[in-house]
UniProtKB/TrEMBL annotation:
Domain Amino acid permease/ SLC12A: from-to ranges: 38-448
TM regions (residue ranges): 41-62, 68-85, 106-127, 147-165, 177-198, 223-245, 265-282, 308-327, 348-373, 379-404, 416-442, 448-468
Source organism, top-level taxon: Bacteria
Keyword Transmembrane helix: yes
Keyword Repeat: no
Membrane topology type: Multi-pass membrane protein
GO cellular component terms, A-Z: membrane
Organism: Streptomyces albidoflavus
Gene3D superfamilies registered for this protein in UniProt: Amino acid/polyamine transporter I
Cross-referenced PROSITE patterns: AMINO_ACID_PERMEASE_1 (PS00218)
GO biological process: amino acid transport; transmembrane transport
Protein name: Amino acid permease
Amino acid sequence: MTRTTLTPGDTPGADQRPGGDQASDTGSALSNGLKQRHLSMIALGGVIGAGLFVGSGAGIAAAGPSIVFAYAASGLLVMLVMRMLGEMSAANPASGSFSVHAERAIGPWAGFTSGWAFWFLLCVAVGLEGIGAAEIMSGWLPGTPEWAWVALFMVIFCGTNLAAVKNFGEFEFWFATLKVVAIVVFLVIGVLAILGVLPGSEAPGTSNLTGEGGFLPNGSEGFIIGLLASVFAYGGLETVTIAAAESERPAEGVAKAVRTAMWRIGVFYVGSMAVIVTLVPWDDPAVAEKGPYVATLDHLGIPGSGQIMNVVVLIALLSAMNANIYGASRMACSLVARGQGPRKLGRVFNGVPRIAVLASSFFGFVCVLLSYWRPDDVFAWLLNMIGAVILVVWFFTAASQLLLRRRTEREAPERLVVRMWLFPGLTWVALAAMAGVFVLMAKEPDTRVQLLSTGSLTVALALAGYLLQRKRAAAPAGVGKG
């Protein structure tokens, strides 16, 4: 077994593959076992999670049929963010993705802040997904303790991520394939039902879109709640730009994955919402209780639909656990390589940062234990802390692209194999849209607490990153490098 130790001294210039530069992290120490088919399915499947299959019900209950516009609007924002991230990641592939780009564009404190905030988000999310998957398994096998299922899932996916990266890629490929197939089948059934050609169904017309209070039944306030729910449902796309650094051809791989994923994601999300609110009354209690997909299939009389969707949701949760442990470990490894974390986390064994994998899995399991021990205070506090982290990451991404685009055009224009549309206009539009979402969160009581908690976490990390940056700048040459 070979072992590589990444230290702060390894930071800039360590990436020896094409596309790496002096601001990249130590991608050369990691393997390159991911293939293009892995990246393409990670990009497609990474965003199709339980938030879509189950969580979208709350958005529909609030916004009614206008949830279609909410998902379309937030989907456009996500496409802009992914285009910007794709541009930077294709030009400079790095396992730290947006954190590396923020460091290059703004400064080490920005890379520190966005990187560790994202790591924190992924680790807590691993715990949440483990709890959700355990609840499904306990429902199928009554009497089995949920904590035992969580422990089993943690062991499986920790083991998967401790092995070669191609194992992670294979798991995600098949998980994502099953999720995509499930969405496509749902859309086909839904369209047939809308057209009235599905056996046993009649075309609903626009009755569910215009009845029961109209297209905007709860007014602008309901639409805002639905919009906020839809924004956070899109989280997960960032993993493909992290994984690209471990692919055979990083620059080409991320460029192709981003291009092919964006329009399909729009079809999956917006198309699903349109099918659901056309076929089922938005205020049907089953939409929130069972989830919109199960409610729609039940409404159409599809036999065994509840159990079928439970299988799909379980796959989505397990896929997210696998991907989040991977993403958290690579982000931690990248941060350490740039001198922004405990050195031991950066040790790489046979191309895998195994200490980072273990640490990320352990933190996720601690979150699960807190959900049992202190659900009303500590665990609730953790959930609020991560409430708006993805928006913080997106904001750093847009700001970094705004600064790096001109620099890349001057220094290495040949690396711009993916270009942001209508630059810089659409970058500014994305930044303004994110600022607008922050304002909307501040106005809503339910999201205001999340905004304040996430803001506190971000400020604390930014301060820690700035102090570390000042300390390293003031240190004599060579001090703290080994």
